[in-house]
């Protein structure tokens, strides 16, 4: 009985080490190693090649190695009866909160613009904004969205939230569903997207949404690239609906070298690093889920196939 790690990057060893050091009794393999395929009971995956899990006939569960598991649903060859689990981890939430706080701060203090001016040796002081003058709208109030809200509020930002689901107990205004979306957007001077990618949310960051924001608003997308309509973002920037965007995620990653976002002065790009699963911190829940599925118990952080997250 064993776990296989299947990732599209070169981070297999660090996950193997984290799991093996915390559970020496569980054999852990990397994809492509000489694996006894029928022994594999759990696949721990990050953007695995679609169809690749067919190699393991005795799988009992699939553990996503991040918060978002949309890439698992994209693999139509995965057996429908297999439980899928995602990561819920305090560092994933606090790292995301720190990142959004840093980006929002940089936007208000115009740090990107000064970096650009520095490259031209241009000295040009500009006005800046204060946290307490700005309302941040958070789309998606899951674990990450709530952590971001708390961090922003703690330094003085006003926060409003939008969710399609039940409203959590929070001390800021929460708007719900399509009926209240316009109200939410009209208050969001910075729009932060933390929605899961599902058939309903794909392309949700579009011209309609941008035109409902206060003029010159800013966008931070730290969720998934396909939530954004790229052409609509370029249009919204050109029209002044938006003044700048910070994007950490893209339709195709790495972002193609000839993508217009690279050279756009108002688009700031980071390479999907806003919040990255920490193997040591996440290993205990993977080990616990592995032990549970072996025993036929219900694992933690189970994903709903019908909801898509
Ligand atoms: C990162 O994108 C994650 O889903 O954890």
In short:
This protein is an alpha/beta fold. The chain has helices at 12-22, 70-73, 90-108, 111-119, 143-154, 181-187, 207-212, 230-239, 279-294; strands at residues 2-7, 28-30, 40-46, 61-64, 84-85, 135-139, 158-163, 174-176, 190-193, 217-221, 242-247, 267-269. 30% of the residues lie in helices and 17% in strands.
What is the number of helical segments per DSSP (H or I, 4+ residues)? Answer: 9
Overall spatial form: elongated
Strand content: 15-25%
Order of strands, main sheet, comes to: 8-7-6-9-10-11-12
CATH class categorisation of the largest domain: Alpha Beta
Helix fraction bin: 25-40%
Radius of gyration based on Cα positions? 21 Å
Small molecules (ligands, ions, cofactors) in the structure: glyoxylic acid
CATH architecture of the largest domain: 3-Layer(aba) Sandwich
Order of helices and strands: EHEEEHEHHEHEEHEHEHEEH
Low-confidence stretches: none
| Overall number of domains | 2
- Mean pLDDT level: 96
Our measurement of the CA-to-CA distance between the termini, rounded to an integer number of angstroms, reads: 28 Å
CATH H-level superfamily of the largest domain? NAD(P)-binding Rossmann-like Domain
* Strand segment tally: 12
CATH topology-level name of the largest domain: Rossmann fold
The major beta sheet can be summarized as: 7 strands, parallel
How does the helix and strand content classify structurally?
alpha/beta
């Amino acid at each position: 009985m064993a776990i296989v790690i299947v990732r599209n990057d070169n981070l297999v060893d660090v996950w193997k080490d984290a799991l093996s050091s915390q559970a020496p009794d569980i054999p852990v393999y990397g994809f492509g190693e000489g694996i006894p395929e029928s022994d594999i009971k759990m696949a721990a995956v990050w953007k695995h090649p679609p169809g690749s899990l067919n190699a393991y006939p005795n799988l009992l569960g699939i553990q996503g190695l991040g918060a978002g598991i949309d890439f698992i649903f994209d693999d139509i060859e995965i057996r429908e009866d297999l439980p899928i689990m995602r990561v819920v981890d305090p560092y994933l939430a606090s790292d995301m909160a720190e990142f959004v706080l840093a980006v929002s701060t940089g936007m208000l203090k115009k740090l990107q613009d000064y970096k650009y001016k520095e490259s031209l040796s241009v000295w040009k002081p500009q006005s800046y904004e204060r946290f307490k003058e700005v309302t941040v709208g958070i789309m998606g109030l899951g674990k990450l969205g709530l952590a971001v809200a708390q961090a922003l509020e703690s330094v003085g930002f006003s926060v409003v939230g939008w969710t399609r689901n039940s409203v959590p107990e929070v001390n800021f205004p929460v708007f719900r569903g399509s009926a209240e979306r316009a109200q939410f957007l009209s208050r969001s001077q910075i729009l932060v997207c933390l929605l899961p990618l599902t058939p309903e949310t794909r392309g949700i960051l579009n011209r309609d949404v941008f035109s409902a924001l206060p003029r010159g608003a800013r966008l931070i997308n730290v969720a998934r690239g396909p939530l954004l309509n790229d052409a609509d973002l370029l249009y919204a920037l050109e029209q002044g609906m938006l003044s700048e965007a910070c994007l950490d995620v893209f339709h195709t990653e790495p972002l193609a070298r000839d993508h217009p976002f690279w050279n756009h002065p108002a688009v700031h790009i980071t390479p999907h690093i806003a919040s990255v699963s920490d193997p040591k911190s996440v290993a205990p829940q993977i080990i616990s889920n592995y032990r549970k599925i072996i025993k036929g118990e219900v694992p933690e952080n189970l994903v709903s196939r019908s909801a898509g997250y």
